[in-house]
Amino acid sequence: MTRSPQTEIIDCRLRDHSEGPRRLGAILLSTDQVFETDAARLLDRDRTALHVARIGFENPTTPERLRAMAPDLSRTAGLLVPGAELSAVAFACTSASVTIGNVAVADAIHTSLPGVPVVTPSFAALAGLAALGTGRVALLTPYLPETTEPMADYLAGQGLDIIRSACFALEDDRDMARIDDHSMIEAACALDGPEVDALFLSCTAMRGVDVIDRIEARLGKPVVTSNQALCWALGRMAGLDGRPKGFGRLFDCALPTDFARGIGP
């Protein structure tokens, strides 16, 4: 019988943490099919590393099901590369951030990741609309009406004037990921009017990033989407100022000072 050689031990040098990319974390729904693909296009892959943990979620996307994720947020946040220094962490569900509450989301994440800036899509959208200097907004979602209405109420409660609000009335976020470009573009354009400053396409599960430039070109107005705003805010929190081509006017903007530290302390 041939014996294998004794394993040799070879010295290596470990890079200092500061030599690597800026590390960002994201908590995704277990059913999410869109955010990772969008983030790969929107974040500078040479300067950032995105680490993902998934939280259990069961459709339909109703306020009750969204709230059911809250007790597991802290545990899921703790799965994000323990021991690594994160520049910021995102909870990538727009409707859940409103249903659970942005501060409650941040508090839960800070239980496992104290001191790490937290951003949600609804928080990032507010920051993006503020950076663009827009206050009169048309809202388009893929959600059911009972999930869309709290979103409109939240935005209005934060000082925005919601001129129009519409939804595709889907209950399964896997179907939301299948909405075609034509449907999103035509619906967004139908919501426009002289009193509208900007459009917000709400939902990380909807492929709104794909249509930003085409809607902006047709309307001559800025478009903010959940994943676009979330990745813009994450990048700015990590100290990056890049502008990926083809994803809207928002990437020309700096993150407003009031939003720079994320949600909460």
Keywords:
alpha/beta; globular; four-stranded parallel beta sheet
Topology:
Layout: E1 22-29, H1 35-42, E2 48-55, H2 63-67, H3 73-77, E3 88-91, H4 94-100, H5 102-112, E4 118-119, H6 121-131, E5 136-141, H7 145-157, E6 161-167, H8 173-176, H9 181-190, E7 198-201, H10 212-219, E8 223-225, H11 226-237
Helix pairs in contact: 1-11, 4-7, 6-11
Structure commentary:
The chain is an alpha/beta fold. The protein is built from eleven helices and eight strands. Helix 6 (121-131) packs across helix 11. The longest helix is centred in the middle third of the chain and has 13 residues, at 145-157. It starts with 21 loop residues before the first strand and ends in a 28-residue tail after the last helix.
Main β-sheet: number of strands, strand sense, barrel status? 4 strands, parallel
Radius of gyration: 20 Å
Order of helices and strands: EHEHHEHHEHEHEHHEHEH
Distance between the ends? 65 Å
Low-confidence stretches: none
The counted number of beta strands is 8
